[in-house]
Amino acid sequence: KVEKEMNEKAMELLSVFGLEEYADQFAANLPYGQQRKLEIARALATEPKLLLLDEPDSALDLQNRYQIMKHLKEMVLEREQAGLLCLHDPVLALRFCEQLILLKDGNIFAVLHPESDTLPEMEKALREIYGAVSLLEHRTSDGKRRLILLWEGRE
Predict the structure, then answer these.
(1) pLDDT in tens, 2-34
(2) How far apart are CA 30 and CA 35, in angstroms?
């Protein structure tokens, strides 16, 4: 019974990440993007209370980066878990994270809340790290706030 439940959970996670067709293959034989998805699915399979991920989007193409982040956010919210992710892409962080902890010289420099902070206060903090950037706000058809980051180059 336990083995059956484990197999069902594994297949569910493979399905979430679009990996069902690779269920019978060795991880080392998968394309790199699928390997990254599998690594994250494995981490989620243990149902941790705190999910720690270091650059889950690294070396992935645009589509896989957004898919992984979307699935991570959905799973963390659905399971009422906490997630702590190290990201170097402020666009992904602004899009998928509820809270951004910005580090500068190894110290916490600012804490941002993309859903509620004003554009000027977020721009001020982001400029300290990334140089000349601007944020634009867009509302989706269902009213969700989306932030667009424009990099204008280092000052």
Answers:
(1) 778 877 888 888 888 888 888 888 888 888 888
(2) 6
Whole-angstrom Cα distance, residue 6 to residue 1? 9
The strand pairing partners of 138, in sequence order, are 146
- 133-139 and 145-151 as β-strands: parallel, antiparallel, unpaired? antiparallel
Who contacts 31 (Cβ-Cβ below 8 Å, separation ≥6)? none
Alpha-carbon radius of gyration of the chain: 18
Q: Residue 41 contacts by C-beta under 8 Å, 6 or more apart in sequence?
A: 10, 13, 14, 16, 17, 19
Closest CA to 17 of 64, 52, 51, 58: 64
Q: What is the pLDDT of residues 53-105, one digit of tens each?
A: 999 988 888 988 998 899 889 988 988 989 999 999 999 999 999 999 999 99
Q: What token pair was written down for 93?
A: 């962080």
